[in-house]
């Protein structure tokens, strides 16, 4: 039993002390190089962010409308509340 514990701990210690390669994870230190989109055009960035965030905000409301639509009930009925 003890031999298997010692052999596993020796293997684990050897695996931990293995040097890691830092050249695989190198990025140039330039503004915007770590982002998956371009930040050069301010108007384009504003349009993309507004679309992305606006759609994310609208999803729950679209889902609520769809559930009411499936049930056959109006989502919004103007006028005074029913008595």
From TrEMBL:
GO terms for biological process: mitochondrial electron transport, cytochrome c to oxygen. Pathway: Energy metabolism; oxidative phosphorylation. Pfam families: COX7C. It is a single-pass membrane protein. Keywords: Membrane, Mitochondrion, Mitochondrion inner membrane, Transit peptide, Transmembrane, Transmembrane helix. It is found in: Mitochondrion inner membrane. It comes from the Eukaryota. The chain crosses the membrane at residues 45-68. PANTHER family: CYTOCHROME C OXIDASE SUBUNIT 7C, MITOCHONDRIAL, CYTOCHROME C OXIDASE SUBUNIT VIIC. Component of the cytochrome c oxidase (complex IV, CIV), a multisubunit enzyme composed of a catalytic core of 3 subunits and several supernumerary subunits. The complex exists as a monomer or a dimer and forms supercomplexes (SCs) in the inner mitochondrial membrane with ubiquinol-cytochrome c oxidoreductase (cytochrome b-c1 complex, complex III, CIII). This is Cytochrome c oxidase subunit 8, mitochondrial. It comes from Acaulospora morrowiae.
